[in-house]
Amino acid sequence: MVRRKTIAALFAALLSATVLPGVTEAEKGPQGCSRYVCIYTAYTGTGYQAWAEFSTNVTRGHHHIWGPGLNVNTPDGPWRGGQDSRRYSARGSGKVCAEGWSYSGGAWHSIGLPCVSIE
């Protein structure tokens, strides 16, 4: 358990220093991780964009991303760790979440649910 917490803390520190592709520092919105899923946001001037990624390879899975004006599921299939989902645009302020789902053993399992607040 201590090792998992240490890895999670290291991952969070690296995440905070991450430069998101195609996003300037001024546009960068809140981001966060929970277990094996990370959520990223960017301010667009007329709203926000949100996208997610798994931090580990997933043989079959998808993300459910929701927040103000947003409620989408990414395509179901294999995902590489670090592979960004499509960016989804919306407007509003409040909580934005991305739940990662992995299919194994004949059932769906939640493997992370990070949330951030958009202003």
Outline the structure in words.
The protein has 119 residues and is mostly beta strands. It has a single domain (2-118), classed as Immunoglobulin-like (Sandwich), CATH 2.60.40. It is 13% helix and 49% strand. It has one helix at residues 2-16; strands spanning 32-34, 37-43, 48-54, 58-67, 70-73, 77-79, 88-90, 94-104, 107-112, 115-118. Strands 4, 5, 6, 8, 9 and 10 form a 6-stranded antiparallel sheet that branches. A 4-stranded antiparallel sheet has the order 1-2-3-7. A hairpin with a 2-residue loop joins β1 and β2 (37-43). The longest helix is centred in the N-terminal third of the chain and has 15 residues, at 2-16. The model is unreliable at 4-19 (pLDDT under 50).
- N-to-C terminal Cα separation, in Å? 34 Å
Topology-level CATH name: Immunoglobulin-like
The coarse overall form would be elongated
Characterize the main sheet. Answer: 6 strands, antiparallel
Q: What class would the helix/strand composition place it in?
A: mainly beta
Helix segment count? 1
CATH class categorisation: Mainly Beta
Helix content: 10-25%
Report the order of strands and helices.
HEEEEEEEEEE
What is the fold's blueprint, element by element?
Blueprint: H1 2-16, E1 32-34, E2 37-43, E3 48-54, E4 58-67, E5 70-73, E6 77-79, E7 88-90, E8 94-104, E9 107-112, E10 115-118
Antiparallel strand pairs: 1-2, 2-3, 3-7, 4-5, 4-6, 4-8, 8-9, 8-10
